[in-house]
Design goal:
The protein starts with a helix and ends in a 33-residue tail after the last helix. It contains seven helices and three strands; from the N terminus they run ααααββαβαα. It has a three-stranded antiparallel beta sheet with strand order 1-2-3. The protein folds into two domains: about 1-60, no CATH class; about 85-155, Factor Xa Inhibitor, CATH 4.10.410. It is mainly alpha-helical. This is Large ribosomal subunit protein bL35m. One of its GO terms (biological process) is translation. It is found in: Mitochondrion.
């Protein structure tokens, strides 16, 4: 109990500043004593509701920043490491877009209609910003084109309907 009181007092004292200033976190015994007295006065009082409202006050003072644990460089060769979840869940076509399946395609199929089941079996494209992010999360090996025997995605690796990425020459029909 005393350990939580000290951490509560330290959390109340810590201030998070912006513009590159350091986080100041120091120990003040007066705040520990105040928190200690406050906790025991709340325990002895008849209203237990205030005890649960108090951590929210401390929670509002601490600002958390989101972080991602990406291995930027490996220890042995210094190469960038791929995120395994991207390789497992997505597939990259040769023209740069990533495809994925819809979530819930194996869940509760007994209550889904046949058109919805058909849509769940299909793949969808990721957006351009998502594709750029996924390209950053994998190494060069997964960005290069791969040629497999009997690849089911082979017709989709080229994008002939778009004029910039089309490879085959369009047929010429002379005017009559």
């Amino acid at each position: 109990m005393f350990r939580t009181l000290i951490s509560a007092a330290r959390g109340a004292v810590s201030t998070i500043a912006t513009n590159g200033q350091k986080i100041q976190n120091f120990y003040q015994p007066s705040l520990v004593q105040q928190a200690y007295q406050r906790q025991f006065s709340l325990l002895s009082s008849q209203t237990p509701c205030r005890l649960f409202n108090q951590p929210q006050e401390l929670k509002n003072q601490v600002v958390l920043t989101n972080t991602r644990n990406v291995t930027k460089y490996s220890f042995r060769k210094g190469k960038r490491k791929s995120v395994k979840a991207v390789i497992k869940r997505f597939y990259r076509l040769n023209w740069g877009v990533w495809i994925r399946t819809l979530c819930g395609r194996h869940k509760r199929l007994w209550k889904k209609s046949p058109p919805r089941k058909r849509r769940l079996r299909q793949h969808v494209f990721c957006s351009a910003s998502q594709s750029m992010l996924l390209d950053k999360m994998v190494c060069d090996y997964w960005r290069k084109p791969k040629y497999f025997v009997d690849d089911p995605y082979n017709p989709y690796h080229t994008r002939e309907e778009f004029s910039i990425t089309s490879r085959k020459p369009k047929p010429y029909f002379p005017p009559e």
